[in-house]
Protein backbone atom coordinates (compact mmCIF):
# COMPACT_ATOMS: atom_id res chain seq x y z
CA UNK A 1 0.00 0.00 0.00
CA UNK A 2 1.37 3.40 -1.04
CA UNK A 3 0.36 6.76 0.37
CA UNK A 4 1.01 10.10 -1.35
CA UNK A 5 -0.45 13.48 -2.11
CA UNK A 6 -1.20 14.11 -5.79
CA UNK A 7 -2.80 16.49 -8.27
CA UNK A 8 -4.84 15.26 -11.22
CA UNK A 9 -3.32 16.54 -14.47
CA UNK A 10 -5.51 14.78 -17.00
CA UNK A 11 -8.44 12.36 -17.21
CA UNK A 12 -9.15 9.94 -20.00
CA UNK A 13 -12.31 7.87 -20.25
CA UNK A 14 -11.71 4.15 -20.16
CA UNK A 15 -14.51 1.84 -21.23
CA UNK A 16 -17.94 2.87 -19.91
CA UNK A 17 -17.40 3.87 -16.34
CA UNK A 18 -13.69 4.10 -15.62
CA UNK A 19 -11.02 6.73 -16.05
CA UNK A 20 -7.28 6.65 -16.54
CA UNK A 21 -5.79 9.58 -14.69
CA UNK A 22 -2.43 11.22 -15.10
CA UNK A 23 -1.57 12.34 -11.57
CA UNK A 24 1.43 14.30 -10.39
CA UNK A 25 2.34 12.93 -6.97
CA UNK A 26 4.70 14.22 -4.34
CA UNK A 27 6.44 10.91 -3.70
CA UNK A 28 6.40 9.11 -7.05
CA UNK A 29 6.28 11.92 -9.62
CA UNK A 30 3.87 11.56 -12.54
CA UNK A 31 1.94 8.29 -12.53
CA UNK A 32 -1.02 6.73 -14.36
CA UNK A 33 -3.89 5.73 -12.13
CA UNK A 34 -6.85 3.60 -13.09
CA UNK A 35 -9.94 4.95 -11.36
CA UNK A 36 -12.43 2.13 -11.71
CA UNK A 37 -16.05 3.19 -11.82
CA UNK A 38 -15.19 6.89 -11.56
CA UNK A 39 -18.00 7.73 -14.03
CA UNK A 40 -20.67 5.92 -12.05
CA UNK A 41 -23.14 8.53 -10.74
CA UNK A 42 -22.64 7.53 -7.13
CA UNK A 43 -18.90 7.06 -7.34
CA UNK A 44 -16.86 8.35 -4.42
CA UNK A 45 -14.23 9.31 -6.95
CA UNK A 46 -16.14 11.92 -8.99
CA UNK A 47 -14.58 14.87 -7.19
CA UNK A 48 -11.11 13.51 -6.68
CA UNK A 49 -10.59 12.33 -10.24
CA UNK A 50 -11.01 15.71 -11.96
CA UNK A 51 -8.17 17.91 -13.22
CA UNK A 52 -6.83 20.30 -10.55
CA UNK A 53 -8.11 18.23 -7.64
CA UNK A 54 -5.48 17.83 -4.96
CA UNK A 55 -5.82 14.64 -2.95
CA UNK A 56 -4.30 12.39 -0.39
CA UNK A 57 -4.24 9.00 -2.10
CA UNK A 58 -3.84 5.45 -0.96
CA UNK A 59 -2.73 3.41 -3.92
CA UNK A 60 -1.45 0.04 -4.91
CA UNK A 61 0.63 -0.71 -7.95
CA UNK A 62 -0.65 -3.16 -10.55
CA UNK A 63 1.04 -4.36 -13.71
CA UNK A 64 0.19 -1.36 -15.93
CA UNK A 65 -1.39 1.14 -13.58
CA UNK A 66 -1.66 2.31 -10.05
CA UNK A 67 -5.09 1.76 -8.48
CA UNK A 68 -6.86 3.91 -5.90
CA UNK A 69 -8.02 2.33 -2.69
CA UNK A 70 -8.80 5.66 -1.07
CA UNK A 71 -8.71 9.34 -2.06
CA UNK A 72 -9.34 12.21 0.33
CA UNK A 73 -9.67 15.71 -1.07
CA UNK A 74 -7.18 18.23 0.29
CA UNK A 75 -8.25 21.03 -2.08
CA UNK A 76 -10.51 20.86 -5.14
CA UNK A 77 -9.25 24.28 -6.35
CA UNK A 78 -12.84 24.85 -7.30
CA UNK A 79 -12.46 28.61 -7.69
CA UNK A 80 -10.10 28.02 -10.62
CA UNK A 81 -13.19 26.88 -12.54
CA UNK A 82 -15.06 30.11 -11.80
CA UNK A 83 -13.18 32.16 -14.40
CA UNK A 84 -12.29 31.24 -17.93
CA UNK A 85 -8.85 32.87 -17.57
CA UNK A 86 -8.00 30.91 -14.44
CA UNK A 87 -9.04 27.59 -15.90
CA UNK A 88 -7.21 28.23 -19.20
CA UNK A 89 -3.93 29.23 -17.55
CA UNK A 90 -4.41 26.43 -15.03
CA UNK A 91 -4.68 23.82 -17.79
CA UNK A 92 -1.46 25.18 -19.24
CA UNK A 93 0.27 24.69 -15.86
CA UNK A 94 -0.93 21.08 -15.82
CA UNK A 95 0.19 20.52 -19.43
CA UNK A 96 3.64 21.91 -18.59
CA UNK A 97 4.06 19.16 -16.00
CA UNK A 98 2.46 16.46 -18.10
CA UNK A 99 4.73 17.18 -21.09
CA UNK A 100 7.98 17.92 -19.24
CA UNK A 101 8.32 15.12 -16.74
CA UNK A 102 8.84 11.44 -17.38
CA UNK A 103 6.77 8.87 -15.49
CA UNK A 104 7.74 8.09 -11.91
CA UNK A 105 10.42 10.72 -11.51
CA UNK A 106 9.95 12.48 -8.21
CA UNK A 107 10.60 16.26 -7.98
CA UNK A 108 9.29 17.77 -4.76
CA UNK A 109 10.27 21.32 -5.72
CA UNK A 110 8.04 21.17 -8.79
CA UNK A 111 5.25 19.59 -6.76
CA UNK A 112 5.38 22.46 -4.27
CA UNK A 113 5.57 25.04 -7.07
CA UNK A 114 2.44 23.57 -8.67
CA UNK A 115 0.47 23.66 -5.39
CA UNK A 116 1.59 27.21 -4.69
CA UNK A 117 0.89 28.26 -8.29
CA UNK A 118 -2.64 26.83 -8.20
CA UNK A 119 -3.29 28.58 -4.86
CA UNK A 120 -2.23 31.95 -6.28
CA UNK A 121 -4.21 31.31 -9.49
CA UNK A 122 -7.36 30.52 -7.45
CA UNK A 123 -7.67 34.16 -6.45
CA UNK A 124 -6.24 35.87 -9.53
CA UNK A 125 -8.36 38.55 -11.23
CA UNK A 126 -5.72 40.24 -13.40
CA UNK A 127 -2.06 40.03 -14.39
CA UNK A 128 -2.55 36.46 -15.57
CA UNK A 129 0.23 36.51 -18.12
CA UNK A 130 2.71 38.14 -15.74
CA UNK A 131 1.92 35.40 -13.26
CA UNK A 132 2.38 32.69 -15.87
CA UNK A 133 5.77 34.07 -17.03
CA UNK A 134 7.03 34.03 -13.42
CA UNK A 135 5.68 30.48 -13.09
CA UNK A 136 7.37 29.38 -16.34
CA UNK A 137 10.76 30.77 -15.28
CA UNK A 138 10.58 29.05 -11.88
CA UNK A 139 9.28 25.85 -13.40
CA UNK A 140 12.10 25.50 -15.91
CA UNK A 141 14.63 26.34 -13.17
CA UNK A 142 13.31 23.59 -10.88
CA UNK A 143 13.40 21.21 -13.81
CA UNK A 144 17.17 21.77 -13.95
CA UNK A 145 17.45 24.42 -16.68
CA UNK A 146 17.68 27.61 -14.67
CA UNK A 147 18.39 30.47 -17.10
CA UNK A 148 21.87 31.81 -16.50
CA UNK A 149 21.34 35.55 -15.99
CA UNK A 150 24.28 36.79 -13.91
CA UNK A 151 27.01 36.74 -16.54
CA UNK A 152 27.49 35.83 -20.17
CA UNK A 153 26.81 32.09 -20.28
CA UNK A 154 29.73 31.54 -22.69
CA UNK A 155 32.62 33.75 -21.49
CA UNK A 156 31.48 34.94 -18.05
CA UNK A 157 31.61 38.65 -18.95
CA UNK A 158 29.63 40.84 -16.54
CA UNK A 159 29.04 43.53 -19.15
CA UNK A 160 25.27 43.83 -19.68
CA UNK A 161 25.50 46.15 -22.68
CA UNK A 162 23.96 44.76 -25.90
CA UNK A 163 23.28 41.34 -24.43
CA UNK A 164 21.02 38.72 -26.00
CA UNK A 165 19.25 35.66 -24.61
CA UNK A 166 20.42 32.35 -26.00
CA UNK A 167 17.82 29.58 -25.84
CA UNK A 168 20.47 27.17 -27.06
CA UNK A 169 23.06 28.11 -24.39
CA UNK A 170 20.45 28.68 -21.66
CA UNK A 171 21.22 32.22 -20.59
CA UNK A 172 22.39 35.69 -21.50
CA UNK A 173 25.12 36.01 -24.04
CA UNK A 174 27.41 39.02 -24.60
CA UNK A 175 28.06 40.94 -27.78
CA UNK A 176 31.35 39.13 -28.41
CA UNK A 177 29.99 35.63 -27.90
CA UNK A 178 26.86 36.09 -29.99
CA UNK A 179 28.62 34.22 -32.79
CA UNK A 180 28.14 31.05 -30.68
CA UNK A 181 24.38 31.32 -31.20
CA UNK A 182 23.24 33.33 -34.22
CA UNK A 183 19.59 32.69 -33.22
CA UNK A 184 19.91 34.38 -29.83
CA UNK A 185 17.16 36.89 -29.06
CA UNK A 186 17.86 40.60 -28.52
CA UNK A 187 16.88 41.78 -25.05
CA UNK A 188 17.24 45.33 -23.80
CA UNK A 189 18.07 46.26 -20.23
CA UNK A 190 14.40 46.63 -19.29
CA UNK A 191 13.58 43.13 -20.56
CA UNK A 192 16.62 41.69 -18.80
CA UNK A 193 15.60 43.24 -15.47
CA UNK A 194 12.01 42.07 -15.85
CA UNK A 195 13.16 38.52 -16.54
CA UNK A 196 15.51 38.61 -13.56
CA UNK A 197 12.80 39.96 -11.24
CA UNK A 198 10.16 37.45 -12.32
CA UNK A 199 12.62 34.59 -11.86
CA UNK A 200 13.77 35.58 -8.38
CA UNK A 201 10.67 37.18 -6.79
CA UNK A 202 8.34 34.79 -4.92
CA UNK A 203 5.17 34.05 -6.92
CA UNK A 204 2.85 35.82 -4.49
CA UNK A 205 4.90 39.03 -4.64
CA UNK A 206 5.27 39.50 -8.40
CA UNK A 207 2.15 41.66 -8.57
CA UNK A 208 4.11 44.54 -7.05
CA UNK A 209 6.51 44.55 -9.99
CA UNK A 210 5.40 47.04 -12.61
CA UNK A 211 6.04 46.20 -16.24
CA UNK A 212 4.39 46.92 -19.57
CA UNK A 213 2.21 44.37 -21.38
CA UNK A 214 4.55 44.52 -24.32
CA UNK A 215 7.41 43.39 -22.10
CA UNK A 216 5.32 40.56 -20.63
CA UNK A 217 4.35 39.25 -24.09
CA UNK A 218 8.00 39.24 -25.15
CA UNK A 219 9.10 37.47 -21.97
CA UNK A 220 6.36 34.88 -22.39
CA UNK A 221 7.52 34.12 -25.95
CA UNK A 222 11.12 33.72 -24.78
CA UNK A 223 10.12 31.53 -21.82
CA UNK A 224 7.98 29.24 -23.98
CA UNK A 225 10.72 28.89 -26.62
CA UNK A 226 13.25 28.11 -23.90
CA UNK A 227 11.04 25.53 -22.18
CA UNK A 228 10.15 23.77 -25.44
CA UNK A 229 13.81 23.64 -26.43
CA UNK A 230 14.87 22.34 -23.00
CA UNK A 231 12.30 19.55 -22.88
CA UNK A 232 12.61 18.77 -26.60
CA UNK A 233 8.96 19.37 -27.54
CA UNK A 234 7.30 21.23 -30.41
CA UNK A 235 4.32 22.94 -28.75
CA UNK A 236 1.87 23.17 -25.87
CA UNK A 237 -1.74 22.71 -26.99
CA UNK A 238 -3.21 24.88 -24.25
CA UNK A 239 -1.22 27.90 -25.46
CA UNK A 240 -3.58 28.20 -28.45
CA UNK A 241 -6.42 28.83 -25.99
CA UNK A 242 -4.36 31.35 -24.05
CA UNK A 243 -3.73 33.29 -27.29
CA UNK A 244 -7.49 33.67 -27.81
CA UNK A 245 -7.77 35.25 -24.34
CA UNK A 246 -4.93 37.73 -24.71
ZN1 LIG B 1 30.53 36.38 -23.67
Automatic annotation (TrEMBL):
Pfam families: RecO_C (PF02565), RecO_N (PF11967). Gene3D superfamilies: Nucleic acid-binding proteins, Recombination protein O, C-terminal domain. InterPro entries: ARFGAP/RecO, DNA_rep/recomb_RecO_N, NA-bd_OB-fold, RecO, RecO_C. Keywords: DNA damage, DNA recombination, DNA repair. One of its GO terms (cellular component) is bacterial nucleoid. SUPFAM superfamilies: ArfGap/RecO-like zinc finger, Nucleic acid-binding proteins. One of its GO terms (biological process) is double-strand break repair. Residues 2-77 form the DNA replication/recombination mediator RecO N-terminal domain. Transmembrane segments: none annotated. The keyword DNA repair applies. Belongs to the RecO family. Involved in DNA repair and RecF pathway recombination. This is DNA repair protein RecO. The lineage of its organism: Bacteria, Bacillati, Bacillota, Tissierellia, Tissierellales. The gene is recO.
